[in-house]
Amino acid sequence: MLHVPQTEVYTYEKIIIFISCCLSFLGSSLIIGTHFWWPDLRTKARQLLVYLSLADLLSAVSYSYGVMRDFQSSTWDCVLQGALSTFANTSSFFWTVMIAVYLYFIIVRSEQTLADSLVVWFHAVSWLVPLVITVAAVSLQKIGYDASDVSVGWCWVSIQAEDHVLWMLLTGKIWEFIAYITLPTLYILIKKHIYKAHEALSEYRPILACNSSRLSRSSMADRKLTIIPIIFIFLRIWSTVRFILTLCNSPAVQNGMLVILHGIGNTFQGAANCIIFVLCTQVVRTRLVSCLCSCFRFEVDPMPHKANVNNYGEAISRRNAEILPSYVTEE
User: Hey, which bits of the chain come out as E strands?
Assistant: First the structure.
């Protein structure tokens, strides 16, 4: 059994991570809210994003409680918080990978029916597998206080468990490692397919030159497909680094900057998804601005408003004709 001194989480670190949790909660809520507010923008891909946001929202709530509570022992609320964060975090890993698989079948394989039929299995894997793992960990008393060496104030796998390394792998790390490999691989295959499709259409450049809006959306999609795995790895890598340092019994696991990066990385996923797929999506962004203007009683010229409504209809029509789902396009 490893004996690593407890990592002290300072007040300013707690505040930073709590703010990250709040931003993730707001971001996940905004993704879910926009999905239900505007039915005409709903697609299967964005529906999968909502399920991911539900997991991220639960994760943000459990982490925020844990970091502000700053547990010192395996109390009942420590176990409860650890169980909720374990389930939500593992589910988030699965949904992130499942969305990449869905996009792969839609874009590369062009098998819409098969991709839609897989959604049932996505639910079975992304909800049931984390639930079974979490229930097993709680039943065997593996969830508890971990001295903040593989967390930042919250509870996860008890550091006192003799097989704690095995359970750390089962309740998160092994799925994290799989995501590190799967996500870049799938998105590289998708980007290569898009690049080849563009090359095949190169002889029609005069026609494409007249359709700059479609090229703009395709370019945005290409950038988003690059950003998705990069952001995921950048946010999650710090918890992996601390996990490895803990296994090596290294004092560097208590480095203040590393602790902050770990805390933000584990809690900011919902906010990152909101930035990419809500704030960086033109149709959703425009509607949000319009709603804010209405809430603050700003005077809006009716003619531009009518033009915006027409643009929405045109955007929706274009979206349905696109090879890429609206999950990755700027509409």
Answer: 143-144, 156-157
Q: How far is CA 181 from CA 10, 16, 50, 64, 97, in A?
A: 34, 30, 23, 29, 10
Kindly tell me the sign of the dihedral angle through the C-alpha atoms of 267, 268, 273, 279.
positive
| Two structure tokens written together for 286 | 């425009």
146-169-20 Cα angle (round to 5): 60
pLDDT in tens, 256-295: 899 999 999 999 999 999 998 888 877 788 888 887 787 7
d(CA 140, CA 79): 12
Kindly report, residue by residue over 110-135, the tens digit of the pLDDT. Answer: 888 898 899 999 999 999 999 999 99
8 Å CB contact between 86 and 143: yes
Q: Which two tokens stand for residue 67?
A: 């970091």
CA distance 331 to 275: 15
Residues in the chain: 331
d(CA 120, CA 185): 23
Residue written as tokens 């206080």? Answer: 145
Distance CA 202, CA 57 (A): 43
Instruction: Tell me what pLDDT residue 299 has.
Output: 45
pLDDT band at 170 (very low <50, low <70, confident <90, very high): very high
pLDDT score of 278:
84
DSSP E strands, 32-172: 143-144, 156-157
Residue 158's nearest CA partner among 243, 254, 82, 251 is: 82
